[in-house]
Amino acid sequence: MFVREAEFKDYSKIAQLHTKNWQQAYQGILDNQYLEERLSVDHQAVWQTRLTQPSLNQGVLLLEEGDNLCGFVCLYGNHSFEHGTMIDNLHIADGYRGQGLGKKLMFEAAKWARKHFDDVGMYLEVLTKNEPAKAFYDSIDGIDAGEVIWKAPCGSQVPCHTMTWSSPSMLLEKTT
């Protein structure tokens, strides 16, 4: 397996993995009609845009085995004055879960953040009802900075928790 930065040609497979994971993890949390009928189109558009017109502070890292996308992480450096670099997406493909790949991608995310935005913390938002993801972030010592409400693309307002790490180096230490 190897990690590399995403390129435009990757947008479709990223969008497919992103969509499939949301459809699995967010059933009963987000509007089911949205998940089944509109999500795929929305994610295709999001990833086309992100990879053709990336923000200067954006990083998208892929974990691949041959031609298979095993997972990806998307970050926005120094996104929040309070919390620092945002981990916007972390997704592992079905057949690759439980093999430590989430931890590997968090390690790579922390390396990216340390290289580009070393002087700020790192954070992400995880849906309150996404228990497996919350347990994973707890296992790598994410600090729960409190609940926020996410205005989901389907119109739902969904409770989330902000998980933080004081620095990229701290996250590196917890993922080695």
Automatic annotation (TrEMBL):
Q: Which InterPro entries match?
A: Acyl_CoA_acyltransferase, Bact_Acetyltransf, GNAT_dom
What name does the UniProt record give this protein? Answer: GNAT family N-acetyltransferase
Per UniProt, the keywords (alphabetical) are: Acyltransferase, Transferase
Domain N-acetyltransferase positions? 1-176
Organism of origin is Vibrio casei
Give the CDD domains listed for this entry.
NAT_SF (cd04301)
PROSITE patterns per record: GNAT (PS51186)
The lineage, from the top, is: Bacteria, Pseudomonadati, Pseudomonadota, Gammaproteobacteria, Vibrionales
Q: Which domain of life is it from?
A: Bacteria
UniProt GO molecular function: acyltransferase activity, transferring groups other than amino-acyl groups
Q: Which SUPFAM superfamilies match?
A: Acyl-CoA N-acyltransferases (Nat)
